[in-house]
Design brief:
This protein has 413 residues and is an alpha+beta fold. It has helices at 2-24, 47-61, 94-102, 113-124, 152-160, 175-181, 186-189, 198-212; strands spanning 33-40, 71-78, 83-86, 137-143, 164-169, 190-192, 220-222, 229-232, 242-250, 258-263, 268-271, 279-288, 296-301, 310-318, 321-327, 333-340, 347-352, 357-360, 368-376, 382-390.
Length: 413
């Protein structure tokens, strides 16, 4: 009887364990993705700051589940020319990645971040660099805020390809520009912190990175703007087993549907040229020649139109200053630039969201200026409006008035 009793007990325990597992639901899939650290290694960063950022990235990477079937990491330096410290497939543990980061030497040179971002885009999607197709892509950029070349266009290209961008500024960055560069919403993807306080944000940032790398089991949208959005879905087919039909239609006008056929190994698509503030119904229809695959559906609403500043008003004009005001827009913030029409140095003033006027100081008397107000939006795009203004001559610069003609008798009045 004892063997039967033992067998019955084992079966009961197994059944109880299976039931408890079913009650808990399916286990969350392990995060998987390619993580690229972009490190400012230029001469604009002091050796002390570089060492502190290097330690922070090492602490950030050490607890991550790194390995061939999980997270892979790479490090790219920002300098005069971008340089890869190690590719994605070189290290297979958090400790190994931490050691490699701590061994990285500062390169000095110029802060050509835009060039490094273009290089990072190549690395994130290049199998020769150890990158994997079909996995989430995450970029973590740690910067002191300055760049010798434009950052906006190459960063937007990364986000357009589905890369999640986290930015850590050590305090001297332009909040408006960095908010536009980070993935939306900026409050979850942009951190301003002193270089000595970087360890404080490590747990939160690490959790956000892992969240971005959780495999999505359903069709989902990201990078939603007023004119488009990006779609992504898990691999449901292969290149040889079928193809996808992607359908998009305004919810209020189903007959105006747009369709796009994609190969079976596709896992994403970006729709553009859409109407602002509009609900769209999306259907992903897998056409398999092996077995039926259920279609997936999604509803996405585009953002309101990104209308730039309107009706610029110039007031309180003085020989050395003026005030510019404008009708507000739903923007992250503004920057106002003023420069002489005939050429010369221009000055730029940052204006936070919620304000729609600013004073411009330090102008030259008797000079015609071009004033440009630019609104920056969460999508990374900008809208601008310009107006002309002319400062009056100052009292000191005016020539003395000639005396009045003498009156009768040759005497003045």
């Amino acid at each position: 009887m004892l063997p039967w009793t033992a067998l019955s007990l084992a079966l009961s325990l197994a059944l109880a364990w299976a039931r408890s597992g079913a009650e808990r639901g399916p286990q969350a899939a392990a995060p998987q993705g390619d993580l690229l650290f972009l490190l400012d290694s230029s001469a604009s960063v002091t050796h002390y700051e570089f060492s502190r950022v290097r330690e922070f990235l090492g602490q950030l990477a050490a607890p991550l589940p790194l390995g061939p079937g999980a997270v892979r990491a790479s490090l790219v330096h920002v300098s005069s020319r971008p340089h890869s410290e190690f590719p994605f497939d070189q290290h297979s543990s958090g400790a190994a990645v931490q050691d490699a980061i701590l061994a990285a030497a500062q390169l000095m040179g110029n802060t050509n971040t835009g060039l490094a971002l273009a290089y990072a885009k190549e690395q994130l999607f290049a199998e020769a660099a150890g990158a994997r197709p079909g996995v989430p892509k995450v970029l973590v950029w740690v910067t002191d805020g300055g760049s010798s070349d434009p950052v906006g266009p190459p960063m937007q290209e990364l986000k357009d390809q589905g890369v999640t961008v986290f930015i850590v500024s050590t305090g001297r960055g332009n909040r408006l520009e960095l908010s536009a560069a980070a993935s939306a919403p900026a409050e979850k993807h942009l951190h301003f912190v002193d270089v000595d306080d970087l360890p404080i944000i490590a747990p939160e940032l690490r959790g956000s990175i892992l969240d971005a790398m959780q495999p999505q089991q359903q069709l989902h949208a990201s990078e939603v703007t007023s004119s488009g959005f990006r779609l992504a879905w898990p691999p449901l087919l292969t290149a040889d087993s079928g193809y996808y039909v992607l359908e998009l239609a305004p919810s209020a006008e189903p007959a105006a549907a747009r369709r796009q056929q994609l190969p079976g190994n596709a896992t994403g698509w970006a729709w553009a040229g859409l109407d602002p503030d509009t609900d769209y119904h999306v259907a992903l229809v897998p056409e398999s020649n092996l077995h039926p695959v259920k279609p997936q559906h999604l509803r996405v609403r585009t953002l309101p139109e990104e209308a730039g500043p309107q009706r610029i008003v110039i007031s309180h004009v003085r020989p050395h200053s003026l005030r510019v005001s404008w009708a507000p827009a739903d923007a992250l913030g503004y920057h106002v630039q003023v420069g002489p029409l005939r050429g010369g140095a221009a000055q730029r003033v940052e204006v936070p969201a919620g304000r729609n006027s600013t004073a411009l100081q330090g102008l030259a008397p008797g000079t015609a200026y071009l004033v440009t107000v630019t609104a920056a939006f969460r999508s990374g795009r900008e809208r601008a409006l310009s107006a002309k203004a002319c400062t009056p001559d100052s009292e000191r610069s005016r020539a003395p008035r000639p005396p009045p003609p003498p009156g009768p008798g040759g005497r003045g009045p």
